[in-house]
Design brief:
About 10% of the residues lie in helices and about 35% in strands. The protein has a 5-stranded mixed beta sheet, with no helix packed on it. Strands 1-37-36-35 form a 4-stranded antiparallel beta sheet. The protein has about 500 residues and is mainly beta. The N and C termini lie far apart (about 50 Å). About 50% of the residues are buried.
């Protein structure tokens, strides 16, 4: 004999499961038993243990509890009244030449999603019925946003693993244009004077029109480009997987003139170039027996002639990270474990410093100190003029993220332990740290006293930089490998699912 209301109870179970899972994805740090997700979980457990044995009156009672708790409990935050601004985010680590990762405007959590844009490759994967241009990425291609977005003049720009560069309306999320490169776009864009500069893994470096996506110029290198570009206003600098640091004229894309190629003398590569020389530094003992790994620039090494134009320096291994161009010098790391500094006008090496592993991060320069991380797990602070080490602090087994620096605090996360740390900028002492369920590849971005950063654990975090308190977080349903962009009173972030989000202050 059928129990009255049993079919309804089965439907209730499905409802509770769906409610619990959806509430788990609502943003915010909700505490207390009255959370909708907690109530849903408790009711689901009650159902599984007792309710199947009872009749319809109990069902009505439980349903009433669900309705009441749904009305009284927390709801997903909704966007407040959004007033755009003229603030922009021109490059991977912000607008400052020093690549400090500090925003010009303050955006205060909690945040709510204003719009979501999905890369065409992600839509094709799901075979959705959407209006996708014929030139879009083919079905089945990965569409993750590893490229960090940038934003200016009401346009958000980001590259995707589906091979496209997208231009999206900053206020509505509507697609404005997309440019297909034919290979993954991991590099982050750079916006200068209405133009977008970005490289692709196909070896092409592009200049696109910010408003239309029209291709204006292209410069081709032998191998892929993974890192963002930087500029001194005259030339564009970027690294590539052929181990070269390139410098090309920002207006013509011609190789920068009067810049002899500098080569790490131990480098051996079919694309090696030269006509120039490179400093070779010996290891000198510091007081206490510590080895000084900074190259002095006193010794020179003659090199054969280079065939590839535009290269101003050759490292021992790939150059994956974005350079920082500041005060007439270019600071950049390489997979050979070195951080290098060369003069922007001549390519002459100033100094280099060897770490224990690959340097993926973009250096941040504050008050005469260069802050960067290494895959050896350390955060480094070097003198920007001499390259002498001030301090280094180990925060993880490996670190690839770029640091953000403000108010005497260096904020950066490790790749494996899942810790985000705040370090004293003067001493390297760890002031605070908190552990997540995933590591960090994305570099933090600081707005006011809040650092926004995404993690492998699928969350976007907002952390107080003074004490490391997590003041807000949101489950994004997929890992975040790129930094956020803050512009137009909005936080823009891409995920590994091929989605680009715009978040604004909630009501």
């Amino acid at each position: 004999m059928a129990i009255p209301g049993l079919h309804f109870l089965e439907m209730l179970k499905i409802f509770l499961l769906h409610w619990y899972n959806s509430e788990q994805q609502i943003s915010g740090l909700r505490k207390g038993w009255w959370r909708p997700a907690t109530i849903a979980k408790v009711l689901l457990m009650i159902y599984l243990t007792t309710l199947r044995k009872h009749t319809l009156p109990v069902v009505v009672f439980v349903f009433s509890l669900v309705a009441i708790s749904g009305c009284a409990g927390d709801k997903a935050p909704v966007p407040g009244e959004h007033a755009g601004s003229d603030a922009v985010w021109n490059s991977f680590r912000g607008n400052a030449e020093q690549s400090t990762g500090v925003a010009d405007e303050e955006i205060t959590p909690p945040l709510a999603v204003m719009w979501t844009f999905e890369a065409y490759g992600a839509r094709a994967d799901k075979k959705q019925e959407v209006d996708i241009p014929d030139t879009a990425a083919p079905p089945g291609r990965r569409a993750a946003f590893r490229s960090s977005p940038v934003a200016a003049d009401d346009v958000v720009v980001a590259g995707s693993m589906d091979g496209s560069v997208y231009g999206v309306n900053a206020e509505t999320g509507a697609p404005i244009w997309h440019f297909e490169t034919g290979d993954a776009v991991i590099a982050s864009p750079l916006i200068i004077d209405g133009n977008v500069y970005i490289g692709s893994m196909n070896g092409n470096f592009y200049c696109l029109d910010l408003k239309t996506g029209e291709q204006k110029r292209t410069f081709t290198v032998p191998r892929g480009i993974k890192g963002a570009a930087a500029t001194d206003g005259k030339n564009i600098f970027f690294g590539a997987l052929d181990r070269g640091l390139y410098a090309i004229d920002i207006n013509t894309f011609e190789p920068a003139v009067k810049m002899p190629v500098k080569l790490n003398p131990e480098s051996a590569d079919p694309y090696e170039a030269a006509g120039g020389s490179n400093a070779v530094g010996g290891e000198a003992e510091k007081p206490g027996g510590e080895v000084d790994k900074t190259t002095s620039g006193d010794k020179l090494h003659k090199l054969p002639k280079q065939k590839v134009t535009g290269v101003v320096f050759k490292a021992l291994d790939w150059i994956e990270g974005a350079p920082t161009v500041y005060d007439g010098k270019v600071y950049f790391g390489s997979n050979d474990g070195f951080i290098y500094v060369v003069r922007a006008e001549t390519g002459e090496i100033v100094w280099s410093y060897e770490t224990g592993n690959c340097v993926y991060s973009t250096p941040a320069i504050v008050d005469g100190t260069v802050y960067f991380t290494s895959w050896d797990g350390n955060v480094y602070a070097l003198d920007s003029e001499t390259g002498k080490m001030k301090w280094k602090t180990k925060i993880d087994e490996q670190v690839s993220a770029s640091p953000a620096v403000k108010d005497g605090i260096v904020v950066v996360g490790g790749a494996f332990d899942g810790d985000l740390a705040g370090l004293n900028a003067e001493t390297g002492e760890i002031v605070w740290r908190f552990t997540t369920k995933g590591g960090f590849d994305a570099g933090p971005v600081i707005s006011g006293n809040i650092a926004y950063v995404g993690s492998y654990d699928d969350y976007l975090y907002a952390v107080n930089i003074a004490d490391g308190t997590v003041v807000w977080k949101k489950l994004m349903k997929h890992m975040i490998r790129g930094s956020v962009a803050l512009a137009n009173n909005t936080v823009f972030v891409g995920t590994g699912a091929g989605k680009l989000f715009a978040l604004v202050e909630a009501e």
